[in-house]
From TrEMBL:
Its main location: nucleus. It comes from Parascedosporium putredinis. It is found in: Nucleus. This is Mediator of RNA polymerase II transcription subunit 31. Component of the Mediator complex, a coactivator involved in the regulated transcription of nearly all RNA polymerase II-dependent genes. Mediator functions as a bridge to convey information from gene-specific regulatory proteins to the basal RNA polymerase II transcription machinery. Mediator is recruited to promoters by direct interactions with regulatory proteins and serves as a scaffold for the assembly of a functional preinitiation complex with RNA polymerase II and the general transcription factors. GO terms for molecular function: transcription coregulator activity. GO terms for cellular component: mediator complex. Residues 1-24 are annotated as: Disordered. Keywords: Activator, Nucleus, Transcription, Transcription regulation. InterPro entries: Med31_sf, Mediator_Med31.
Length: 129
């Protein structure tokens, strides 16, 4: 690590034994870091949101790309179980690690293809259930 780098560690997983308002974990707008990061990482399942991030130039910012790398802890237990849509969420998080994908997601064709793939996956999953 460089002198200016800050090591980012995954947040602690909420425990039912923790007091709801114990004051142990800082709140940001009333939410814990765990809740904020969970909501954000789940938004990555939406191809239109990925396109928005690219259009706003977030995906070309080194600090944001580093944040996306940090968020890969969601692919491991115990965090994985908190994801509502783990398939597309983790797939897109993995794709976002690639510079080419971060550029290409600006393409409406790629966005549409990801939307269609997501719908096909949902149909197959529901047919198996």
């Amino acid at each position: 690590m460089n002198d200016g780098d800050v090591e980012m560690l995954p947040p602690t997983v909420p425990d039912s034994s923790m007091a709801v308002d114990s004051g142990e974990e800082p709140k940001y707008g009333g939410y814990s870091r765990f809740e904020i990061e969970l909501e954000f990482v789940q938004c990555l399942a939406n191809p239109y949101y990925l396109n928005h991030l690219a259009a706003q130039k977030y995906l070309s910012r080194p600090e944001f790309v580093a944040y996306l790398d940090y968020l890969q802890y969601w692919a491991r237990p115990p965090y994985l179980k908190y994801l509502t849509y783990p398939g597309p969420t983790l797939r897109h998080l993995e794709l976002l690690q690639q510079e080419r994908f971060r550029r290409d997601i600006l393409s409406p064709d790629l966005v549409q293809r990801l939307v269609e793939e997501g719908m096909k996956s949902a149909v197959v999953w529901h047919a198996q259930a």
